[in-house]
Queue: 3 jobs
Job 1
Amino acid sequence: MYICSLKIKSMETSILTSKGQLLIPKRLRNKYGIKSGIKVVFEETTNGVLIKPMNENYFKSFAGILKSGDLKEDIKKMKEEEKLYEDRKLNLKKSKK
């Protein structure tokens, strides 16, 4: 005997147009504050694609992602680390020749 448990609150469908457009059902637009002109992000997951509005909550989810709290300093460090990584890759290629 197999028991399948799905955690689906509700399911609504939409049809993709020939232009690649989807209509987000009104109930979901209202619930998640997706209004005309708002940008959304398409996030790939192991189960499919998640559509999220790029609203204040979306940007708040990035809070604390910076190491030092100083954007310029963190970008500078990331660029330095990236340059070191690229230099190491170049040196490995040269040593193999």
Job 2
Amino acid sequence: MGSVELTPFLTVLNAKDRKELLVSLEEQFGVEVLPDEAYVVSNKEKVYMVTQGIRDVAWSELRIDRVGVYIGKWYADGFRPSVEGSQVFGPMASKNVVELGKQGLMGWLKGRDVDTMYDDSRFVLVRYQDDFVGGAKMKNGTLLNGVSKARTTVTLIA
């Protein structure tokens, strides 16, 4: 996937690859349009959203392996949005959104897997009330928590 190489680690998505991202988001979450930004993919299949001005940067002078806002990662069976990706695409999603109650949210923010009432396996967006709190792989009805330990919390203020 990719077209214009910025660095040995980063590639700006061309129109064909943006279409592939949109098709995946549409099939998985019902998202019908991508925000009008540029999208960059890393050599580790991580996708970042950046301003269109990304092409104007003198990349040969920089030594970086990521840029912009991390919005998700490609896996063999689909695209898993990050916390920020869920906040970008969640309001546009029409399917595969799992609503957590307060107790489920508390476990999620502590980095725990959360059981749901569903009994299938797929990528989902995770929401608590009006807030999208991440993307997850649901396996046999359990949300597998992929939130990094650095972003989890032990103590929550109710």
Job 3
Amino acid sequence: MAQCELAYMTWKEVEAARDRGAAVLVPIGTHEQNGTLGPMGTDGLLVFEITKRIAAETGAVVAPLLSYGYSSRHRNFPGTISLQPDTLRRLIYDICEALVKDGFDHVLLVNSHQTNEPIMEHAGRQIREKYGVIMGYINPVVLAEKSTQDLYPKLGSAHGHGDERVTSMLSYCLPGAVRMDAPPEPQEWREFEGLPLAASHQVKVGQGVFGLYIEVHDFSPSGGNGNPAAVDVDKGAEVVRRVVGMAVEYVKAFLKLRTSKRP
């Protein structure tokens, strides 16, 4: 099988990939706490593994992993490294600009950390404004949440930071990455000072959901959400299969789009 990672390709191989119209997938992670079982690099490690699987089925090439993101909500947990939003935007822009200048017209960001997404969009729209190239993105964790309610009926489509869905996926992709020596009790992000949580930055009041600029340590001593100890590698394999399948379908559709106005 042809090499798909840019870091291992020669410039001639990159040139050939460009000339055949390959998409470029740019994986973006974070370096933040993921509860007491998940490693700090969970987002990036998982995204990179998913991205390589997508590339294997679409002929795409994979840029090196950008291992840091915007993680200010997790800053009170040791080891969390968060970039300033403009630093992250500039990094994403510079990476994508280099690819676009090389002649790649189909560039997709692959990211599972939702607070990175507004920053990614800013960079992508700057690329469009300057070079006329439309970019897109894939969020594997959102795909997992929406497609596995039969496997995780108690979780439904709700997001859990380092929960059993994420730890199962990571354990399948990278055996040994999840720390299973001392599984903790299940934990839930329930409330902040009596207000039910809708997300790590949202609370419920009456029938409404409202924003609140709190941080994870304000309501969760461990940082985790859900039951990360309920790791099931077989379930993780099925989740990854579904996510990759949906992403492959999108990449193939994306490749048919006229994403560039360049001559």
